[in-house]
Amino acid sequence: MRCLPLLIIFPKPSKKGAVFFPALKGQVFTPKILMKKLFNTQKIHFVCISLVMCFGFTMMNTADVDSVPRAVPAGMVLIPAGEFQMGSDDAQAGSDEKPVHRVYLDAFYMDTYEVTNAEYAAFLNAKGKHVDGAIKWFDLKDSDAHIEQVDGRYQAKSGYEDHPVIEVSWYGAMAYAAWVGKRLPTEAEWEKAARGGLAGQKYAWGNSINPSKANYLLDVKDTVPVGSYPPNGYGLYDMTGNVWEWCLDAYDSHVYTNSPRRNPIVGAERISELIDNFMAVKSSRVLRGGSWFYSARYLRVSYRDRDTPRITYTLFGFRCVKEVTP
Q1: Calpha distance 264→245 (Å, rounded)
Q2: Above 90 in pLDDT, residue 261?
Q3: Which of 211, 173, 231, 202 is nearest to 303 (CA)?
Q4: pTM attached to this predicted model
Q5: Quick one: which H or E segment has residue 58?
Q6: Helices (DSSP H) in 139-260: which residue ranges?
Q7: How would you classify the pairing of strands 82-86 and 19-20?
Q8: Do 217 and 83 lie in a common domain?
Q9: What percent of the chain is predicted at pLDDT more than 90?
Q10: Which of 251, 237, 322, 313 is nearest to 282 (CA)?
């Protein structure tokens, strides 16, 4: 801290990454050359150590100001920007999982957990309905549903508050996401997040699976509270098993053969186009992650499934993402 006044008094800023130092005959030097010159100049030997150390410290802090990340929204995880390998050439891979290809995604936030019954009930109460015209957001009448209506209010059934919501259509997932200021993940976003930073692995944590890692293959025969199993490398829970998760994209079995390399989306030119007109969507939507009812083959991070956006089902749920704004 004592050297900071010296740094202010003696060096004078020049072009970016260089300083003007009077004791060195008015020459302009980059930081690297400056250090060498200072240590070779006996007259300012004692001053130079402090100045160089302060200069480096000051430069480092200045650069770090722009790289300080924004606060991650509560209940979400930051998925960093960058490339990943999408798809699989594994022996179990279907033709729609091939070929493996590199995809670049901008950074985004993803919900740490699947949306729960308690959270979805709050949405239904805020809207005062579970249908929108002829479109069913949530199937209240299905006996498998874990949300009920009591005295005109929606509430999670006892013991199911923290379980993932099921019996929700793609339209119902989209409506909820809009209500909380988020959206559904693209298929590419979902797969990158599910991989947890790993490449070429079958599951969210590696190549092996057993009932201690995920809810699948009728081991529990029902949903379990979100976060009941270990997270993946990004800190996301239940990306494998528990319930299938709706994605934003339309399903296209051949899209990997000519997929855009950067921020791909299927079914629209832009994400905003889908969000603004989601009630007009008719084509099948992607589902990812497998569920408690399915075997390990369907829980692989590259496995692709789909269904119509109208359907509500006992195995279908979702989670949301949010874009990282500058």
Answers
A1: 18
A2: yes
A3: 202
A4: 0.79
A5: helix 45-67
A6: 170-179, 187-195
A7: unpaired
A8: yes
A9: 78
A10: 251
Structure tokens at 280: 């007009």
Q: Are residues 156 and 188 in the same domain?
A: yes
CB 56 within 8 A of CB 43: no
Q: How far is CA 241 from the centre of its chain?
A: 17
Q: Which candidate, 81, 100, 82, places its Cα nearest to that of 259?
A: 100
Q: Tokens 């009448």 correspond to what residue?
A: 141
Give the range of the structural domain holding residue 122, as residue numbers without chain letter. 76-323
Count Cβ atoms below 10 Å from residue 42 Cβ, excluding itself: 8
Q: What's the pLDDT tens digit per position in 69-89?
A: 579 999 999 999 999 999 999
Mean residue pLDDT of the chain comes to 85
Tell which phi-psi region holds residue 110, choosing left (phi > 0), alpha (psi between -120 and 50) or beta. beta
146-194 pLDDT tens trace: 999 999 999 999 999 999 999 999 999 999 999 999 999 999 999 999 9
Distance, in Å, from the CA atom of 79 to the CA atom of 54, rounded to the nearest integer, reads 34
Same domain, 248 and 176: yes
**The pair of three-digit structure tokens given for residue 173, joined into one six-digit string:** 């997932």
Q: Looking at residue 104, which CATH number applies to its domain? A: 3.90.1580.10
CA distance 253 to 202: 20
Sequence-distant (≥ 6) Cβ neighbours of residue 291 within 8 angstroms: 215, 216, 241, 242, 243, 244, 298, 315
Cα–Cα distance measured from residue 287 to residue 72, given in angstroms and rounded to the nearest whole number: 26
Neighbour-count burial of 102, counting CB atoms closer than 10 A to its CB (0-12 exposed, 13-18 middle, 19+ buried): exposed
Same domain membership, residue 131 and residue 8: no
